[in-house]
Amino acid sequence: MKAPFALDTYLAGVAGRVEKELRAAVEAGARAGPARLWEAVGHALLGGGKRLRPALACATAEAFGAPTGEGSLALRFACALEMIHTYSLVHDDLPCMDDDDLRRGRPTVHKAFDEATAVLAGDALQSLAFEHLLAAPSSDGRPALLASLLASGATRMVEGQSLDLEAETRPPGLDGVLDLQRRKTGALLAASVVGGAIAATGGDQGLGPAGQKLGLAFQIADDLLDLTATTADLGKRAGKDAAAGKATVPALLGVEEARKRADDYCEEALQAFAGLGDRAEALRALARFVVSRRK
Ligand code: GRG
Fold first, then answer.
1. Predicted model pTM
2. Mean of the pLDDT values across residues 75-103?
3. What is the CATH number assigned to the segment(s) 7-292?
């Protein structure tokens, strides 16, 4: 019988390669720029996290036979994704947004530094993502395609955040919640998968819809964890959606139905990956992890 895929080992491998490249980018910034700003960027970027988006990008690139080691375009894109994701977390935690003290088990950037530094660290992370990606050596235009994909994902994410703020005073129905989540979280998750394909082949390989399903599955799983997990498990404040009376899929449909929806979306994504063969083993394991994770 075939041994189950060692996902923990795979995730640790991606995290190790990504963190080495992220650390080098922060150190380069700190050599030339203001110490306090780059310390805050480092606090945010090198402070843990599952590195799920980088792993999805690398696993998709590998499914098409591309390298994801040091110096590869896929790894560079994975790091740019993590920079954008981290900027969104830093800004989302600010007092004017979610006002959170804890992120990835550590004080949020505005708590460890100050509010203005947190705004600037998020801004720097956003532009650094594109600077880093577009520094890739290439003669075939793939870095530009990836930058365009990443920019669209980041714009959709901000739209989602804007809809989320509106929802506090005008709670949306299920379609509204799904639209919001497709943008806020789904777009960057989808870009992770599509970008992996572009880094490997120069094209999206029709993976956009599967990436979107995975994004929705991720957000529903996140909303379920907010209801069921502890702050210690999550490394961020648990139970805040229910406390805020937030419209989420579990709040609208109930826990059981929400879990079923997340599983169905995951299954649909898995079907899209079915034709990719053995090289997509990591990608399939990650898709299952999106809904089975405990943090
Ligand atoms: C403020 C510009 C701006 C955007 C905010 C995506 C987003 C929009 C905010 C993030 C806040 C949040 C908690 C969203 C819910 C889903 C999510 C992105 C969870 C965190 O992602 P994980 O679980 O985190 O991949 P780690 O720490 O593992 O990287």
1. 0.95
2. 97
3. 1.10.600.10
